Amino acid sequence: MKRPMGLCSVCVIALLLFPAFLSPAAQRPSLPAQPYVVATAQSIEGIVKDLHAANKLQDLISGESIGCRVFVQHEADVSTNQAEVHDAADDVFILLAGSAIFVLGGQLDTPKETQPGEWRAPGILGGREIKANQGDVIMVPRGTPHRRVTAGQDVTFMLVKSFAPVKK
Questions:
Q1: pLDDT at position 7
Q2: Do the bridges between strand 89-104 and strand 128-133 make them parallel or antiparallel, or are there none, so unpaired?
Q3: Residue 34 burial by CB count (10 A; 0-12/13-18/19+): exposed, middle or buried?
Q4: Residue among 104, 168, 89 nearest 136 (CA)
Q5: How many C-beta neighbours within 10 Å does residue 150 have?
Q6: Pairwise CA distance, residues 109 & 101, whole Å
Q7: CB 1: neighbour CB atoms within 10 A?
Q8: Could you tell me the residue ranges of all domains in the chain?
Q9: Residue-wise pLDDT tens for the chain (168 aa)?
Q10: Which CATH architecture is the domain 41-163 placed in?
Q11: If 0-12 CB within 10 Å is exposed, 13-18 middle and 19+ buried, where does residue 120 land?
């Protein structure tokens, strides 16, 4: 019985080429999701000076495509910050100047979901109050209630926010 020549030829060629698709030579490292960023101490110092005039923030890295965001924020005499929980983001606060009170842990008091995976509340029940000063670093893992209070104080911090997809 004769086999169709076209089908056999295709099968033989596919079997011969298949290992080439699996070989390391065919694989390549990924390309950058966005350009790299170098923020020198001098440039950050300039940002801190500019922000000191008001309670505002400035992005250093706005990288949703890379799963993180880095910004510098100045805050003075604010007692109205809401408590918050991020279901899919970790926060790392690096205090550049001044001090602030952080309330960490516990439970949100009457939480409301303001965006998918983002919760706000007027306060925290059972949290731990910590005074953070220049040079301190505070890591707040996703799911951890946290709140910042700067009433009677002045603080400038860098915030590194690391994102993961929200699972709902």
A1: 47
A2: antiparallel
A3: exposed
A4: 104
A5: 19
A6: 18
A7: 2
A8: 41-163
A9: 555 545 444 444 444 444 544 555 578 887 776 667 777 888 888 888 888 777 788 887 776 667 888 999 999 988 889 999 999 999 999 999 999 999 999 999 999 999 999 999 999 999 999 999 999 999 999 999 999 999 999 999 999 999 876 555
A10: Sandwich (2.60)
A11: middle
Tokens for 31, please give them. Answer: 């390309």
The pLDDT of residue 111: 97
**Predicted local confidence at residue 159, as pLDDT:** 95
The predicted structure's pLDDT at residue 95: 95
In the Cβ-directed half-sphere of 163, how many Cα atoms lie within 13 Å?
13
Q: What is the rounded CA–CA span in Å between residue 131 and residue 78?
A: 15
DSSP string, the chain: -PPPHHHHHHHHHHHHHHHHHHSGGG--PPPPSS------HHHHHHHHHHHTTSS-EEEEEEEGGGTEEEEEEEEES---PPEEEESSEEEEEEEEEEEEEEEESSEEES-EEEETTEEEESEEESPEEEEEETT-EEEE-TT--EEEE-TT-EEEEEEEEEE-----
First to last CA, the chain: 58
Place of tokens 């104080």: 153
